[in-house]
TrEMBL record:
UniProt keyword annotations, A-Z: Coiled coil, Signal
InterPro entries: CarboxyPept-like_regulatory (IPR008969), DUF5686 (IPR043741)
Coiled coil location: 391-418
Signal peptide: 1-19
Keyword Coiled coil: yes
Protein name: DUF5686 and carboxypeptidase regulatory-like domain-containing protein
Presence of keyword Coiled coil: yes
Taxonomy, superkingdom: Bacteria
Pfam annotation, one family: CarbopepD_reg_2
Length: 905
C-alpha cells in the first residue's frame, strides 16, 4: 500500500515536470522598488556564456574568476539593468533593485480604425519562426535543472486510510505534506541539426534519496507550431486561435551596445481552455525574435501551468537560457504545486552558415517589398545566395525560402545515406558518480541557490540516508549495487506466494511468478477459478549502445499457466516458449484452456465475474480447446509493416454451465442465467460436436503514409501520434483432412483505420472493415466472424471500434459483413461552449457505429459522450447516451458509463 501511495504521488509530480567550479564569484539579491524579492530573475555576465537565475527568494550566486565584469539583470516587465563589478577573492556581494518597465505606444499605428499593430508584428514573427530555429547549427551547454513539488493537502479520507503508510513514507522516503520534494540535475548537453540531442548527467540529487530521476533534455521552443499539444502563439495557425493586442514598446541595449526596440504583445485566446496559451510575449523589432514571454495554459485535468522564458543573445541568436515552468491544482482530491527551472550555460555555439546574415521581413498586408519572388524564382536556389541578392522578403516568400532550404537539406541527408524518417535522435548517459557528488561539489555546480525550505528537505534526506546506511550495511558489487539488496531480492518468503514476485538472478535472467490469489474469477461454466503462472526470462544477447544503456537482441521466455476450475473440478493450463530476435518473435504454445467464442474477448473475465455474481448476467460464452499453436510475428521495413502468421491444431469441445441450479450473490426475480450456447440470428443452433480443426491465420498491416520515428539511446520507436492510415488484411483458412481436421473454409477481411487532428484537442477517428467467407463448406460457430459488442452498462474496449449496445453474438456471421465506426472528439461543442466546462477538463464526442450482415438489418448506433464525468475527482470516466436503429427505424435508447482511456488506440 505504501508503494502504491508513493507511485501516485510520483504520477502527480510528473504532471508539472514537462557553472563552473570556483571559490570566487558574485552573489546577491534582486528586488523591486518596494523591496520585494523577484524570483527567477535572469542574471547574465555580458560577453560570456555564464549566467544564472535567482531562486524563489530572489537570491543568486554565480562562480567567476577574479576580474572585471558587466552583469545584466533581467526580469519580465522590468527595466534591464547593467552593473560593472570587480570580482576579487571570495564572493563579492551585488544587490540590485529593478524598476518596472515604462512602455511607449507607437503613435502612428494606434490611430482609430487601423488594425492593431500587434498583428503586423506577429505576422513577421510567425514568418521568421522557422528561420530562428534553423539559425543554430550546433551547440554544447551545461544545463542545470531543478524541479520541486509539494503536496499541500490530502483528502481527509486518504489521510485516515493511509495514516500509517504516510508515517512510513515520511520516515523512509522523506515525504511529508507541505515539504518540497526536490530533484536537481547538472548535465552536459549537445545539439546538432537537424535533430540530434546528446545528454550526459554528471550530477543528480533529490530529496527522496532512493531513486535517480534525471530530467531528459527537451526542446520546448515556442518557435514550434505546438508545445506539448498546445498551439504556440508563433504557429502558422495562430490567428485562428488567438487575438493579439499591442501594449507598447521599450528600448534597451542590445548585444553589440546598440539600442533595440522590444514590443509587448498581449496573447488572448479566442476560447480559453486546454490547448491554448494566454499572457504576454515580447518581440524584438526588425529581427522579430522572442525576447521573453510569460504565458499560461491549463491541461486536461485542470492543472494551471505557467511558463516564463528569458532569452539571451548568443552570437546574435536569441536563445532561451532561463526557463521556468510552474503548476498548481488538484487531482483526485490531492492538492499540490510545483515548478521546474532550467538554466543553460553555452560552452560552444555555431551559427548555421546559411543563416548568418539576418534579413528583413515585410508584411505584405501593410506594404509589399520592393521585389516579390515567384515560386520558380525560389525552387532549386540556395538560401544564402538569394539572401545576398535581396535583403527584404515578404512573409510568404520567407516561408517559401525556408521550406525550399529544408527540402534541399533533406535530399542532401538522403544522398549521405542518413535516415530522414527519424525526427529526433536522443541519447542519455548517466555518469557513475552522478549520485555520489558531495555537498561541496554541488555548491560549486549549482547555478540557482536553494531556498531555506529546500535546504531543510535535503538535510532530512541526508539524515535518513545515513540512518539507512548504518542500519543496513552491505558490500558493493562491481556495478555499485548493494549485494545485501541483491540477496534480499532473491530470497524466498511466504508473502511472495500470496502476492507474486519476480526473482532476478542476474542481469540477463529472471523468474516471474503470478500468484493464483491475484486471479480469482467466476463464470457459469467453470465456477470459481484460480489461475497462476510461472515464467522464466533470459536475455540471450545484449548489444551495448553505451556503458549505461543495453539493448537485448535476443530474449527467451519459457513458462506455463495453470487454472483450477472448482465447478468442473478440473485442472487446465498451457505452456509457452518464445524467442525474440530484434523485431521478430517466434512462439510455440500448447495445452488445454477455455476461450470466448470471440477471440478478442469482448468482455473481460473480471467484469464478467461481477456481472455474473451481482447482476445474474453471464455474458461470457466459453468453449474448450486442446491445442498446439506455432506463430511468428515480424515488423520489417523499419517497423512500418507488421506480419503475423500462425498455424494451429485444436480439438474443440462445446461446454455447458457446470450446474443448472446456479445462484448469484444477488438473486434477481427478473433475470436468470442463460445457457452457455450463444444466441445467433444466422444459426438456429450454435452448438457443435467435438471436432478437430487445423487453421492457418495470416495477418498483414501497414501504414499508408510516411512513417516517422524517434531514436532514444539507439532504439527506434514509431511516433504514437503518427497520423498515417493503417491498412490491415487478414486471411484465415480451415484446412480439411490434415490430422482429421473437420473444418473447410476460406475467410478474407480487410480494414482501414485512421485518426487525425481537426483542431485543438479535437480529433476525427474512423475504422472501416469488410470481409466474407469465400469458401464455407464446413465451419462451426468458433470460426464465425464475431464483433465487438456490449450488453452491460459499463463500456469496455477501444472507444472507436466497439459497439455500445450490440449483443455479443446475435449478428456473428458465417457469410459476409461490412462494419464502420466514426468517433469525433470535440474540445468545444455543446456544453463545452461554456468556458467553465472546458476548464474542468470536459470534452464531448459524437459517434456512429454501423454493421451489415445478411441478418443484421443495417444495425446502427448513434451516440453522444461526455468525457470527464466527475471533474477532478474521477476525470477519466465518460457518460454516453446511445440510440439504436435498424433499417433506419428507431429501436431504443441506452446509457453507458465508460473510461476515457483509449484502449487499443
Amino acid at each position: 500500500m505504501k508503494s502504491t501511495l508513493l507511485l501516485f504521488i510520483a504520477f502527480f509530480y510528473s504532471t508539472f515536470v514537462l557553472a563552473q567550479t570556483s571559490s570566487t564569484g558574485l552573489r546577491g539579491v534582486v528586488k523591486n522598488v518596494q523591496g520585494e524579492a523577484l524570483p527567477y530573475a535572469a542574471v547574465v555576465i555580458k560577453g560570456t556564456p555564464n549566467g544564472t537565475i535567482t531562486n524563489a527568494e530572489g537570491r543568486y550566486e554565480i562562480g567567476l574568476a577574479p576580474g572585471h565584469y558587466v552583469v545584466v539583470f533581467q526580469y519580465l516587465g522590468f527595466q534591464t539593468v547593467q552593473k560593472s563589478i570587480e570580482v576579487g577573492t571570495g564572493f563579492t556581494s551585488l544587490d540590485v533593485t529593478l524598476e518596472e518597465q515604462a512602455l511607449r505606444l507607437a503613435e502612428v499605428e494606434t490611430k482609430a480604425g487601423n488594425e492593431d499593430p500587434a498583428y503586423t508584428i506577429m505576422r513577421r514573427a510567425i514568418a521568421k519562426s522557422r528561420f530562428h530555429q534553423l539559425q543554430v547549427q550546433r551547440f554544447k551547454a551545461r544545463v542545470y535543472t531543478k524541479s520541486s513539488f509539494t503536496v499541500t493537502d490530502l483528502p481527509n479520507l486518504a489521510e485516515m486510510a493511509f495514516r500509517k503508510q504516510l508515517k512510513e513514507a515520511e520516515k523512509e522516503a522523506n515525504f511529508k505534506v507541505g515539504v518540497p520534494m526536490l530533484n536537481e540535475t547538472v548535465a552536459e548537453v549537445s545539439f546538432s541539426q537537424p535533430n540530434t540531442y546528446r545528454q550526459r548527467i554528471i550530477a543528480n540529487r533529490n530529496s527522496q534519496g532512493d531513486f535517480l530521476s534525471p530530467n531528459q533534455f527537451y526542446n520546448a521552443s515556442f518557435y514550434n507550431p505546438t508545445i506539448a499539444g498546445t498551439v504556440s502563439p508563433l504557429s502558422p495557425k495562430a490567428f485562428a486561435y488567438y487575438k493579439f493586442e499591442y501594449k507598447g514598446t521599450f528600448r534597451e541595449n542590445g548585444p553589440d551596445g546598440k539600442a533595440i526596440e522590444i514590443s509587448k504583445i498581449q496573447v488572448i485566446p479566442r476560447q480559453w481552455g486546454e490547448g491554448v496559451f494566454r499572457g504576454t510575449i515580447y518581440i524584438i523589432e526588425n529581427t522579430w525574435a522572442i525576447h521573453s514571454l510569460q504565458l499560461e495554459t491549463v491541461n486536461n485535468i485542470g492543472i494551471l501551468i505557467s511558463i516564463r522564458h528569458v532569452c539571451t543573445p548568443i552570437q546574435g541568436v536569441w536563445m532561451p537560457t532561463n526557463q521556468r515552468f510552474s503548476g498548481s491544482g488538484s487531482y483526485l482530491g490531492v492538492k499540490g504545486n510545483g515548478y521546474y527551472i532550467r538554466n543553460l550555460t553555452f560552452t560552444e555555439f555555431v551559427v548555421n552558415p546559411a543563416f548568418v546574415e539576418d534579413i528583413e521581413v515585410a508584411d505584405e498586408k501593410k506594404g509589399a517589398p520592393a521585389n516579390t519572388l515567384a515560386k520558380s524564382d525560389i525552387k532549386g536556389k540556395q538560401f544564402d545566395e538569394l539572401v545576398k541578392k535581396q535583403k527584404e522578403f515578404s512573409t510568404k516568400n520567407l516561408r517559401q525560402l525556408v521550406k525550399e532550404y529544408e527540402k534541399q537539406e533533406k535530399q542532401a541527408r538522403k544522398n549521405r545515406k542518413e535516415d530522414v524518417t527519424v525526427v529526433r535522435d536522443d541519447s542519455l548517459e548517466v555518469d557513475s558518480l552522478a549520485r555520489k557528488r558531495s555537498n561541496v561539489f554541488w555548491d560549486s555546480l549549482r547555478s540557482v541557490p536553494l531556498t531555506s525550505a529546500e535546504v531543510k528537505s535535503y538535510r532530512k534526506a541526508d539524515s535518513l540516508g545515513l540512518t539507512r546506511e548504518i542500519k543496513a550495511p552491505g558490500t558493493k558489487d562491481t556495478t555499485g549495487r548493494d549485494t545485501t539488496q541483491q540477496k534480499k531480492s532473491k530470497a524466498f518468503s511466504v508473502g511472495q506466494l500470496i502476492g507474486g514476485n519476480t526473482w532476478r538472478f542476474n542481469k540477463r535472467s529472471s523468474l516471474i511468478y503470478t500468484s493464483p490469489i491475484t486471479r480469482i474469477e467466476y463464470n457459469t461454466v467453470e465456477g470459481y477459478t484460480l489461475e497462476g503462472a510461472l515464467n522464466y526470462r533470459y536475455q540471450a544477447r545484449v548489444d551495448s549502445i553505451n556503458r549505461f544503456r543495453k539493448i537485448p537482441l535476443g530474449e527467451w521466455n519459457i513458462g506455463g499457466t495453470g487454472r483450477y476450475q472448482f465447478g468442473r473440478k478440473q485442472f487446465v493450463g498451457y505452456g509457452l516458449a518464445s524467442y525474440q530476435h530484434k523485431n521478430t518473435l517466434v512462439s510455440l504454445s500448447g495445452g488445454r484452456y477455455l476461450y470466448q467464442f470471440n477471440p478478442n474477448n469482448p468482455i473481460s473475465p473480471f467484469l464478467n465475474s461481477l456481472t455474473t455474481l451481482l447482476f445474474e448476467q453471464n455474458f461470457a460464452k466459453l468453449y474448450q480447446k486442446d491445442f498446439l499453436n506455432l506463430s511468428v510475428t515480424a515488423t520489417p521495413f523499419k517497423q512500418r509493416v507488421s506480419l503475423t502468421g500462425g498455424l494451429e491444431y485444436a480439438q474443440r469441445t462445446e461446454l455447458a454451465n457446470y450446474r443448472e441450479d446456479l445462484k448469484p450473490w444477488i438473486d434477481s426475480p427478473r433475470r436468470e442465467f442463460t445457457a452457455n450456447r450463444p444466441d445467433n440470428n444466422e444459426l438456429a443452433n450454435t452448438g457443435f460436436p467435438t471436432h478437430n480443426a487445423v487453421v492457418l491465420n495470416l495477418t498483414a498491416s501497414a501504414r499508408l503514409g510516411a512513417m516517422q520515428y524517434v531514436m532514444r539511446n539507439g532504439r527506434r520507436t514509431a511516433l504514437r501520434n503518427n497520423e498515417s492510415p493503417l491498412l490491415s488484411v487478414n486471411y484465415r483458412k480451415g484446412i480439411h483432412g490434415i490430422a482429421n481436421s473437420a473444418v473447410d473454409y476460406d475467410f478474407l477481411q480487410a480494414s482501414i483505420s485512421h485518426s487525425f487532428e481537426t483542431g485543438i484537442r479535437s480529433r476525427l477517428n474512423y475504422q472501416i472493415g469488410a470481409g466474407a467467407f469465400l469458401n464455407d463448406k464446413q465451419l462451426y460457430f468458433p470460426d464465425f466472424k464475431h464483433f465487438a459488442g456490449n450488453q452491460f452498462f459499463l463500456q469496455q474496449g477501444d472507444v472507436v471500434s466497439t459497439f455500445r449496445m450490440l449483443p455479443y453474438y446475435q449478428y456473428s456471421t458465417g457469410k459476409r459483413f461490412v462494419e464502420g465506426h466514426v468517433l469525433a472528439e470535440f474540445r468545444k461543442f455543446l456544453l463545452t461552449q461554456v468556458t467553465f466546462m472546458r476548464l474542468l477538463g470536459m470534452k464531448e464526442n459524437l459517434f456512429v457505429h454501423y454493421l451489415y450482415t445478411p441478418v443484421s438489418k443495417n444495425y446502427t448506433e448513434v451516440g453522444y459522450g461526455l468525457d470527464g464525468l466527475i471533474p477532478q475527482v474521477f476525470p477519466f470516466f465518460r457518460v454516453e447516451i446511445v440510440s439504436q436503429w435498424q433499417d433506419a427505424k428507431y429501436q431504443g435508447l441506452g446509457f453507458r458509463v465508460g473510461t476515457t482511456l483509449k484502449f487499443g488506440r
